[in-house]
Automatic annotation (TrEMBL):
Parts of the chain that traverse the membrane: none
Organism of provenance: Paramuricea clavata (Red gorgonian)
Family stated for the protein in its record: Belongs to the peptidase C1 family.
Pfam family, one: Peptidase_C1
Top-level taxon: Eukaryota
An example Gene Ontology molecular-function term: cysteine-type peptidase activity
Name used for this protein in its record: Cathepsin C, partial
SMART domains in the record: Pept_C1 (SM00645)
BP term (GO), one: proteolysis
Signal peptide residue numbers: none
Keyword annotations: Disulfide bond
């Protein structure tokens, strides 16, 4: 939802400030896997097919539930264009992601949450496990929003700045930094961007 919220604010020059319901996706979308993860591409498809509701109408519960959304909830629709960064699944890479971020704003990515990542407190995350040099079908189980990038002055390490959905008490006030340019935990494998219309 963070990508839709950020891009609608950018597109409207901050005249809109929607806070969209994640629980609607978790509980009501046939395109997602609930709390077992989701794919930003399919969440974008759901937004086009069914629209999105605001958080105030269907608050986040942090668990899988049956869809109990009120029929009076207003759905925000739009002819959004959604696509894999790079044009198709597997074409994504770090330079294209940086370009998308600079030109159009935050975008969604999926990645594999490992047990050590759950305990992240700060710094630039690098997974200590073994790396698979090539896997055309990346394992992912969590969707987040890339909001920035940088280079650590002390180490020279490149990183992404990513907004997580686990609350401000987790990580770096709800955000984390992860090494950039190595497809760490498949984070650079299938980034998705959406074009939000001016009236969303």
């Amino acid at each position: 939802m963070g990508m839709f919220e950020a891009r609608s604010r950018i597109q409207s020059n901050r005249s809109t400030s929607y806070v969209l319901s994640t629980q609607d996706i978790v509980s009501c979308s046939e395109y997602s896997q609930g709390c077992e993860g989701g794919f930003p591409y399919l969440i974008s498809k759901y937004a086009i097919d069914f629209g999105l509701v605001e958080e105030s109408c269907y608050p986040y519960q942090g668990k899988d539930t049956q869809c109990t959304e009120s029929p009076t909830c207003k759905r925000h629709h739009g002819n959004n264009d959604y696509h894999y960064i790079g044009g198709f699944y597997g074409a994504c890479n770090e330079p294209l992601m940086r370009l998308e971020l600079v030109k159009n704003g935050p975008f969604s990515v999926s990645f594999e949450v490992t047990s050590d990542f759950m305990h992240y407190k700060g710094g630039i995350y690098v997974n200590p496990g073994l790396k698979d040099k090539f896997n055309p079908f990346e394992i992912t189980n969590h969707a987040v929003v890339v909001v920035g990038y940088g280079i650590d002055e002390a180490s020279g390490m490149k990183y992404w700045i990513v907004k997580n959905s686990w609350g401000a008490q987790w990580g770096e006030e709800g955000y984390f930094r992860i090494i950039r340019g190595t497809n760490e935990l498949a984070i650079e494998s299938m980034a998705v961007a959406v074009t939000v219309p001016k009236i969303f």
